[in-house]
Specification:
The protein is α+β, with helices and mostly antiparallel strands. Helix content is 21%, strand content 35%. The protein contains six helices and 16 strands. The strands form three sheets. A six-stranded antiparallel β-sheet has the order 1-2-3-4-5-6, covered by helices on one side. A six-stranded antiparallel β-sheet has the order 11-12-13-14-16-15, with helices on one face. It is globular. It starts with a helix and ends in a 5-residue tail after the last helix.
């Protein structure tokens, strides 16, 4: 055999050996799942899954469009966790919680452009499973996220599926086109377990909120002309409309801020209007909370509400009563069709702050004084 032939033979053997090695290397490299967490997002090797991890808040890399990852990372924040799984749905994270461990999971049950703005919205099933200790970590809810872009939302609405002492338990939940259909039963921990009632309900996103459809057809408050509590004044920092998670009525929450004075206002109900105003402001630490102080502060607050909100009549009725009577923390039910009270106290933690609470219910339907009666829209 010639030297040239020998050289060619040696080169062929070297090439075959190199190709063989290359094939083995490619074969041994693990395939990265399509939506797996990159090293930049979190370090979570198999050997670390059972090890408690704590550190800086996990951040999504720029351009990541996985909304479930954002939700689960926001849930973690700066908390310690022992296991994180974000490679397949449902995404889940486990918190040791000093021996009272629990796991939170997220999965998408509906993607739909509910508000027709060209951006896909989500309905998420959030489930927490764990010990039913003092923290009661076992609960489940359906979360509507109306998105303003691919990873940030502009609206958030919660429908409670289950909690240890919730009023209702959702037994079945499905989407029919854009309508969310559920079957519910009274929670055996909150009602007589031998006489539990059930009902079927339907939810729809409409005009900037999630509604249970019988609320729109059967509740007097659905006919309110204004969807605000305060008038259009510059001190309003926040207006949020949503859905009450237990009886599925519309809720409105607003925040007024002027200097160190903050007023939080809430409205809800079906046939009966339920209004709450909580005012916090600073006073001298040496101020004595006398009966005269309560009367003056209460009447001044009611005068402000009658002038600044859509509920002149309700605030005026309470103001007229307290102009003749002392302000106590007891509910006043001597005026037909109304129940109200004013509570004034020094904040237990911040001694220089006063908490003034005004609550009033307008009773148009005495058969809707309990959650299930409101949920099923019972009439007179």
């Amino acid at each position: 055999m010639s030297n040239r032939t020998n050289k060619i033979t040696v080169l062929l053997l070297i090439a075959l050996f190199a190709i063989s090695c290359k094939k083995e290397i490619v074969k041994d490299v693990p395939t990265v799942p399509k939506d797996s967490v990159t090293v930049a997002e979190t370090i979570q090797d198999p050997e670390q899954e059972e090890k408690e991890i704590v550190g800086e808040k996990i951040q999504l890399p720029d351009g990541n469009r996985d909304f479930l990852k954002k939700l689960i990372y926001d849930e973690i924040a700066y908390e310690k966790y022992s296991n994180l799984q974000v490679t397949k749905s449902p995404y889940r994270v486990t918190f040791d919680n000093d021996g009272d461990s629990y796991t939170i999971s997220f999965s998408i049950i509906k993607k739909f452009d509910f508000n027709k703005d060209g951006i896909m919205d989500y309905v998420i099933n959030r489930n927490s499973e764990g010990m039913l200790g003092g923290s009661a970590n076992s609960n489940q809810e359906y979360l509507y996220y109306i998105m303003k872009d691919e990873t940030n939302y502009s609206e958030y609405h919660s429908i409670l599926g289950y909690a240890p002492f919730s009023y209702n338990i959702i037994d079945k939940a499905i989407f029919v086109n854009d309508k969310f259909k559920i079957d519910i039963t009274q929670n055996f921990r909150s009602y007589d377990p031998d006489n539990l009632e059930s009902a079927s309900l339907s939810f729809v996103y409409k005009n900037g909120n999630v509604y249970e459809e019988t609320y729109l057809s059967d509740c007097k408050l659905a006919k309110l002309k204004s969807k605000t509590i305060f008038k259009d004044i510059p001190e309003i920092e926040k207006r949020v409309r949503s859905i009450e998670m237990h009886n599925y009525t519309e809720t409105i929450e607003e925040t007024f801020k002027n200097g160190d004075t903050i007023i939080t206002a809430n409205l809800e109900g079906c046939d009966n209007l339920i209004l709450t105003f909580e005012k916090k402001y600073k006073i001298s630490k040496n101020q004595i909370i006398t009966a005269e102080f309560k009367k003056n502060a209460g009447i001044q607050f009611l005068k402000f509400l009658s002038k600044s909100t859509q509920f002149l009549k309700e605030a005026t009725i309470a103001e007229r009563y307290y102009s003749q009577k002392p302000v106590t923390d007891k509910f006043i039910e001597t005026i037909r069709g109304y129940s109200f009270r004013i509570l004034i106290e020094r904040d237990s933690q911040y001694k220089k702050e006063i908490r003034l609470l005004f609550q009033i219910t307008v009773l148009d339907n005495p058969n809707q004084l309990e959650n299930w009666a409101v949920t099923t829209r019972q009439k007179n």
